[in-house]
Amino acid sequence: MVKAKINNVDVEVPEGTSILWAARKANFTIPTLCSHPDLVPGGQCGVCVVEIEGIPGLKRACMTPLGEGWKVHTHTARLMEIRRQLVELILSYHDTDCLTCIKNNNCELQTLAATLGINTVEWHNLEERLPIDRSSVAIVRDPNKCILCGRCTQVCSNMQTVNALAVNHRGYSTVITAAFDTGLGNSVCINCGQCVVHCPVGALYENSHIEKVWDAIHDPDKFVVVQEAPAVRVMLGEEFGMEPGTLVTGKMYAALRRIGFDSVLDTNFSADLTIMEEGTELVSRLKTGKGLPLITSCSPGWIKFMETFFHDMIPHMSTAKSPQQMFGTLAKTYFAEQRGIAPEKIVSVSIMPCTAKKFECQRPEMRASGFQDVDFVLTTREIGRMLREAGIDLNEMPDEKADSLLGEYTGAATIFGTTGGVMEAALRSAYFLVTGRELESIDIAPVRGLKGIKEAEIDIDGLKVKVAVAHSGGQARRLMEKVQDQLRSEGKSEYHFIEVMACPGGCVGGGGQSWGSNMAKRARRGESLYAEDRSLRYRRSHENPSIKVLYEKFLGKPNSEKSHKLLHTHYYKRSTVDGNIIAEQ
Amino acid sequence: MVNENQCNCEQAQEEELYDKLQEIIKEHKGKPKELIMALHKAQNLFGYLPHKVQEMVAEGLNVSLSEVYGVITFYNFFSTVPQGRNDVKVCLGTACYVRGGQMLLKKAEKELGIKAGETTEDRRYSLGIVRCIGACGLAPAMLINDDVYGRVKTTKMIEIIKKYE
């Protein structure tokens, strides 16, 4: 432990604690712009400078561990003036059109300027406006808003190991772009959106589908169906001031009905369906011993990551589509048929914690219904905006239920929203499919939680099934490198089944979730999903009555020919230069 | 300029260059810390760093392409466009700037039809900026290859440039 004084207040913190955190313990908030709890401090912005008695110069609080006996001052007249000047300089090259900015009221720079009491900017704005990068179907980058804090590049290179974004050029010309300045849409970007949720300002945001969805809702000839991902129901509340992790399933259905969706259904239904298809695939691979380990395919960020950096793993990928895409296909086939609606009139909208889903729905192979299966994808942030536009406060909504056919779900589906959830759901059903009995303990604790790569071993009638779970691109890379090594040297991997999600914490930490996420909030959202799982009558996908009806009436059985045609997909090899498809496998 | 009688030796030469590049990459294979060294050698070989060279260096040294591009665009020394046979550099150091260096640059850009940092289509000239060449007494100064020209007038400038084939 280290003892010191911060603004004459005694503090005692573990050795290595930065002055920034130590000051919070003494109830002083040192303003920062670039530091973020998920990231290693880099000291780019310099706003957190402090004075230490006996040490010349200023020190950056985020990067300086508190020393024994130090006397630190965080808000002297000199420091306050320096901070003000620093932020004024940032504002001098920042596009300060706040009212029309996507981050209005959520911007860390806006808040900081207000906190520091900046009333005027004494420097002229000399920068010419740079073109906005709209090359990506998922993510927009506005360099005029960028303050070069480096959070996005750190997330992209260290956390995700994608390396799409980097600092390019120099001096006044410094910009953060993809290689060759070709735009994110022509880069290795996996569309995960972690750069978006970590950006302190409005320089990165999703390619919005809001207008198109309003148009569809207001068009009397269209029948607009909506599905919501599991992780949205524990996030949307935060958009309306609720505690992190508040479960708002019923209120969400009610709100969506009130803004005019013609049928409110649920992605959780197709999550159960994914388990039926993927679980059956797992069982058949376990029986034949071929194509192991089987790797999950729900996360579209992970899919593009794998196609770009690990395309030799394609034979190991589950061919089952993600729940979003299964739902899309069924909405325009089974649902249309049962409800007697012409599929061309159906507009299929999904609400996702994810920016990569916008890319996934536009992949050319995702047209099994004969139409684009999912027409529009809204992030949690976007649906929050739409509800506010429509004058709806989620807090005031009653609890309603989803519509039938594609609305019923089990506890296994709802935990898809957090890391380890797909694995747990698949094992619950795979055990039944192999043994004909149910797992003794339905909760599979070792695959839960937010620790790095998680491993577990499940005994399925004598066969020890070893599984692994990774969340975030960086962990996926480490795990895949290990599997590659094992496959090369021993011809087989120690693992039978692997779940990968591209975002830290899984979908609860997705790139489409509300601004201002951190590990603690992600954990609470995950816990909330497990609580919903415990509260549900059915907790195994194969028990879902609507799924049974779907197979009876429409698909036959899991992995049937019809299932394969509608619910399974294939993958491509992609270039590590521009992320484009090289050759079909 | 397309010349019907032109041989295709330039293409053949380029293939040879890529063979040599492979050797350079082999030397630094899997060593991300030697990136600048490898890029330096590659540029000496090609005269500039085309996209394909950047991609090959990135893969060979196990560095991401975006990092390679970041390094290249940071250092003035590296160029991503082919260099001309003659390197025209206008000085924009303080003294030259005050004495009209900016006017010289504008004139050169207009006459050659390119911007600073670019090369003419016939690859006769590359145009660039330098920050002080130590000839402040002769401001505004200009550098063509290794020749220094002082007290350059915008009216005379193009005559000087034209001397270089």
Q: What report would you give on this structure?
A:
Chain A has 585 residues and is of the alpha/beta class. Chain A folds into three domains: 2-75, Ubiquitin-like (UB roll) (Roll), CATH 3.10.20; 91-206, Alpha-Beta Plaits (2-Layer Sandwich), CATH 3.30.70; 211-584, 3-Layer(aba) Sandwich (Rossmann fold). Chain A has 20 helices and 19 strands. Chain A has helices at residues 19-25, 77-92, 108-115, 151-159, 194-198, 210-218, 236-239, 249-258, 267-288, 300-309, 323-331, 334-339, 356-361, 380-389, 411-414, 421-435, 473-490, 519-535, 545-555, 561-567, and strands at residues 2-6, 9-13, 49-52, 55-60, 71-73, 139-141, 166-168, 175-177, 204-206, 223-228, 263-264, 294-295, 346-352, 376-379, 454-460, 463-471, 497-501, 572-574, 581-584. In chain A, the strands form six sheets. Chain A has a five-stranded mixed β-sheet with strand order 2-1-5-3-4, covered by helices on one side. In chain A, helix 9 (267-288) crosses helix 11 and helix 9 (267-288) packs across helix 16. The mean pLDDT of chain A is 94. Chain B is an alpha+beta fold. Chain B folds into two domains: 2-74, no CATH class; 86-162, Glutaredoxin (3-Layer(aba) Sandwich), CATH 3.40.30. In chain B, 47% of the residues lie in helices and 11% in strands. Chain B contains seven helices and four strands; from the N terminus they run ααααβααβββα. Chain B has helices spanning 9-27, 35-46, 51-61, 65-74, 94-98, 101-112, 154-162; strands at residues 86-91, 125-130, 142-144, 147-149. In chain B, strands 2-1-3-4 form a four-stranded mixed β-sheet, with helices on one face. In chain B, a hairpin with a 2-residue loop joins strand 3 and strand 4. In chain B, helix 1 (9-27) runs parallel beside helix 3, helix 2 runs antiparallel to helix 3 and helix 3 crosses helix 4. The chains are: A alpha/beta (585), B alpha+beta (165). The A-B interface holds A 157, 163-170, 178-180, 187-188, 576-577 and B 51, 54-55, 59, 64-70, 73-74, 76.
